[in-house]
Design goal:
Layout: E1 11-16, H1 25-33, E2 38-43, H2 48-58, E3 63-68, E4 71-76, E5 86-88, H3 96-111
Parallel strand pairs: 1-2, 1-3
Antiparallel strand pairs: 3-4, 4-5
Helix pairs in contact: 1-3
């Protein structure tokens, strides 16, 4: 197996073709704040969990995010396909602080450090 030195390690984010990147802007802020690079690609998926799983298995960092039908999912390569680390319903109406923590958690999964809460009762909104 050859190592491709031109591939930059990053979290992959697969969003549906009809989704707007603006919908996940705060998720991206969370990744940026933790200083983990990411790449966004628009693809056809039926749900966010499937998109996140494929992204995680394609990412050189083994971490992926999917965004489909107003749902976001965070997945890790070694988890079962139907079992993401975290998911968020109704992303468009979700508080920015929770979305930012969710994106930060993707970066924290890469780093191996504890997650931030995405529970609305625990996050200062």
């Amino acid at each position: 197996m050859e190592l491709d030195l031109n591939v930059r390690p990053m979290v992959l984010i697969y969003i549906s073709k009809n989704a707007a990147v603006d919908d996940i802007q705060y998720i991206l802020y969370g990744l940026e704040e933790e200083k983990i690079p990411f790449s966004i690609e628009q693809r056809d998926f039926t749900n966010a969990i499937a998109a996140a799983y494929v992204a995680a298995n394609t990412s050189s960092l083994n971490v992926g995010i999917g965004y489909v039908n107003n749902e976001a999912a965070l997945h890790y390569k070694n988890l079962a396909p139907e079992t993401p680390y975290q998911s968020i319903q109704r992303v468009v109406t979700c508080p920015p602080a929770i979305l930012k923590n969710f994106g930060g958690n993707a970066a924290r999964l890469v780093k191996g450090v504890p997650f931030k809460s995405i529970d609305p009762t625990e996050v200062k909104l």
